[in-house]
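ARCHIVE CARD
SHELF: 3
SLOT: left
DATA:
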Amino acid sequence: MSELESVYKKMDADALKTMMYAQEELRRLGKSTLSPEFVFLGSVRNENSTGGSALYKAGVTIEKMRISYKSAAKGHAEDPSNNGFSEHCVELLLCASKLAENADSDCITSVLLVKAIAIHANSHCKNCFLSTMFNQLRLSEVLNRYLQIEEAIQDED
């Protein structure tokens, strides 16, 4: 079993739906390689998940992000593909898997995908679309606060 297959097997329904939306956004924008930007777009689009809800409450909408992505992507070549996934996307998914392990969980949730996106935006791609969006919208701060509140609420239940 490949690393990606094992990561996908750990995903809950919301995380899988996020990845399905990421693939749809990839096709919609005429690309062939899944990159972290598309996982981000998938997370934004999956606004009924906890991770997507955090983005939505931070004022992030799929319409705004599509426009921002199209503007940022002009003139940029796609990353090389590894079975349809960019190297950075594989790193992001492995990061989400590691976050699940660190939380003593066998499950990758939509929240962990969003956290992995934030980590990736802040450490791996200083001049990419994700980094620009996270800096402009101060998403890291907003998401951290929101996700801490969500985790506290879930712990009370």
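SLOT: right
DATA:
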Amino acid sequence: MRVFLLIDTADEPAVIALATARKVLAESTLADRKRLSEELLSRIDWLCAESGTKLAGLSAIGIVNGPGPFTALRIGTAVANALGYAHKLPLVPVDRETAPSLLAFAKLVAERLQKRDVVKAVLPNYGREPTITPPKDRRGTR
């Protein structure tokens, strides 16, 4: 049975899940984007522990790479890239509009994995130029 880690930080709330092509095995939502960088890896560990799945035993990592918010996408793709590299797992980038549900996301990952339509690293797709505010000066103004 092929099991995938699914990461979607493009929407709010962010969602992570372990799934097969036919069933979502476990899922967790992260409602507070401000805590995404703090909680994403620990939630992935929790999902694996709850389902009895080891990261090294996964078949692939599916990642929604956009469009979406700059920081959330950077965090999601960085985690997917790091886990993929560390565990030698293929990555399957998915556009947010093509995965309206977790099960549709999992089916798409399974199809692309079977076609070997995978990558070793994922870049975020913001859908537009990132809006990065200038740093504040010492007086607290921009």
